Amino acid sequence: MSTKAFVIGHPIAHSRSPLIHGLWLREHGIDGSYEPIDVAPEDLGRFFDRLRTGEFAGGNVTIPHKEAVFDLCDDVDPLARTIGAVNTLVVDQGRVSGRNTDYLGFLGNLDAGAPGWSEGLDAALVIGAGGASRAILVALASRNIPVVLVNRTRETADRLAAEIEGQITVAPMDSINEVAPHVGLCVNTTSIGMHGTRFETFDLARLRPDALVTDIVYAPLVTPLLADAAARGLRTVDGLGMLLHQAVPGFAAWFGVTPSVTPDLRRRIEATL
Ligand code: ATR
């Protein structure tokens, strides 16, 4: 029987997940499908009833449902709970499990783009304290990497640091240039960079020459932060790989094959940005 998976959201047309999973299905010759389904918030409960019939092996969850599905799942992975969002559902014998694969996407992207990056890493600078930051703090804590967290709104960073188990120190945004020489990794988790904007007060010359710089924004692929860092000769990893790598565990759970994030897959998704 053909295995079916989905991505639910509202709206859903913008999602690149059907393209990613569709390419993997074809590559592996799997008799399966991955379809975008527009589910309005008021229909989410009914969609879960449908899930429990076993029609689907699972699927992805995107905006605005990532928090609402918590109460509908039969069980939720503890890390998804800490991150505060579920992006992947796995259905087994009528039970729906919620997971979050964003933190694995972050780690997979850096592991592929800068092999060995976390070995001996003394500290990371994380800019921003929104939803994406949560997943990245969990990812860094899983590798025991101390973090200095800075955010425009200090209180949001304080709250977040208190909720995540890990070595997280909150520093004022205007101390970013004092923090910079003490970190081997710099991560932008904010939407700055999406519209060609940069951190005007962040002097990248303060980063060590061996520092790695990454951005979760992937459109544009080369954000001003990454362009500035590369111009200084720093290593950079763009954010597209996080999107691609977060899709791997879901595909593996539903279709039983662990897919690869190949240069060809990257090129094809890049072409849609
Ligand atoms: P997401 O869930 O995608 O991470 P979010 O929750 O809206 O998005 O978080 C956005 C993050 O980017 C926040 O840390 C936000 O800072 P505030 O907590 O002060 O709002 C940060 N951010 C967004 N625009 C910013 C800007 N122009 N300057 C500095 N920080 C910005």
Automatic annotation (TrEMBL):
<feature type="binding site">
    <location>
        <position position="62"/>
    </location>
    <ligand>
        <name>shikimate</name>
    </ligand>
</feature>
<dbReference type="InterPro" id="IPR041121">
    <property type="entry name" value="SDH_C"/>
</dbReference>
<keyword id="KW-0028">Amino-acid biosynthesis</keyword>
<dbReference type="InterPro" id="IPR011342">
    <property type="entry name" value="Shikimate_DH"/>
</dbReference>
<dbReference type="InterPro" id="IPR022893">
    <property type="entry name" value="Shikimate_DH_fam"/>
</dbReference>
<feature type="domain" description="Quinate/shikimate 5-dehydrogenase/glutamyl-tRNA reductase">
    <location>
        <begin position="124"/>
        <end position="191"/>
    </location>
</feature>
<feature type="domain" description="Shikimate dehydrogenase substrate binding N-terminal">
    <location>
        <begin position="7"/>
        <end position="89"/>
    </location>
</feature>
<dbReference type="Pfam" id="PF08501">
    <property type="entry name" value="Shikimate_dh_N"/>
</dbReference>
<feature type="binding site">
    <location>
        <position position="216"/>
    </location>
    <ligand>
        <name>NADP(+)</name>
    </ligand>
</feature>
<comment type="pathway">
    <text>Metabolic intermediate biosynthesis; chorismate biosynthesis; chorismate from D-erythrose 4-phosphate and phosphoenolpyruvate: step 4/7.</text>
</comment>
<feature type="binding site">
    <location>
        <begin position="15"/>
        <end position="17"/>
    </location>
    <ligand>
        <name>shikimate</name>
    </ligand>
</feature>
<feature type="domain" description="SDH C-terminal">
    <location>
        <begin position="239"/>
        <end position="261"/>
    </location>
</feature>
<keyword id="KW-0521">NADP</keyword>
<dbReference type="GO" id="GO:0009423">
    <property type="term" value="P:chorismate biosynthetic process"/>
</dbReference>
<feature type="binding site">
    <location>
        <position position="87"/>
    </location>
    <ligand>
        <name>shikimate</name>
    </ligand>
</feature>
<dbReference type="Pfam" id="PF01488">
    <property type="entry name" value="Shikimate_DH"/>
</dbReference>
<dbReference type="GO" id="GO:0004764">
    <property type="term" value="F:shikimate 3-dehydrogenase (NADP+) activity"/>
</dbReference>
<feature type="binding site">
    <location>
        <position position="102"/>
    </location>
    <ligand>
        <name>shikimate</name>
    </ligand>
</feature>
<feature type="binding site">
    <location>
        <position position="218"/>
    </location>
    <ligand>
        <name>shikimate</name>
    </ligand>
</feature>
<feature type="active site" description="Proton acceptor">
    <location>
        <position position="66"/>
    </location>
</feature>
<comment type="subunit">
    <text>Homodimer.</text>
</comment>
<comment type="function">
    <text>Involved in the biosynthesis of the chorismate, which leads to the biosynthesis of aromatic amino acids. Catalyzes the reversible NADPH linked reduction of 3-dehydroshikimate (DHSA) to yield shikimate (SA).</text>
</comment>
<keyword id="KW-0057">Aromatic amino acid biosynthesis</keyword>
<dbReference type="InterPro" id="IPR046346">
    <property type="entry name" value="Aminoacid_DH-like_N_sf"/>
</dbReference>
<feature type="binding site">
    <location>
        <begin position="128"/>
        <end position="132"/>
    </location>
    <ligand>
        <name>NADP(+)</name>
    </ligand>
</feature>
<protein>
    <recommendedName>
        <fullName>Shikimate dehydrogenase (NADP(+))</fullName>
        <ecNumber>1.1.1.25</ecNumber>
    </recommendedName>
</protein>
<keyword id="KW-0560">Oxidoreductase</keyword>
<dbReference type="GO" id="GO:0009073">
    <property type="term" value="P:aromatic amino acid family biosynthetic process"/>
</dbReference>
<feature type="binding site">
    <location>
        <position position="239"/>
    </location>
    <ligand>
        <name>NADP(+)</name>
    </ligand>
</feature>
<comment type="similarity">
    <text>Belongs to the shikimate dehydrogenase family.</text>
</comment>
<dbReference type="GO" id="GO:0050661">
    <property type="term" value="F:NADP binding"/>
</dbReference>
<dbReference type="GO" id="GO:0008652">
    <property type="term" value="P:amino acid biosynthetic process"/>
</dbReference>
<dbReference type="InterPro" id="IPR013708">
    <property type="entry name" value="Shikimate_DH-bd_N"/>
</dbReference>
<dbReference type="Pfam" id="PF18317">
    <property type="entry name" value="SDH_C"/>
</dbReference>
<dbReference type="InterPro" id="IPR036291">
    <property type="entry name" value="NAD(P)-bd_dom_sf"/>
</dbReference>
<dbReference type="GO" id="GO:0019632">
    <property type="term" value="P:shikimate metabolic process"/>
</dbReference>
<dbReference type="InterPro" id="IPR006151">
    <property type="entry name" value="Shikm_DH/Glu-tRNA_Rdtase"/>
</dbReference>
<dbReference type="GO" id="GO:0005829">
    <property type="term" value="C:cytosol"/>
</dbReference>
<feature type="binding site">
    <location>
        <position position="246"/>
    </location>
    <ligand>
        <name>shikimate</name>
    </ligand>
</feature>
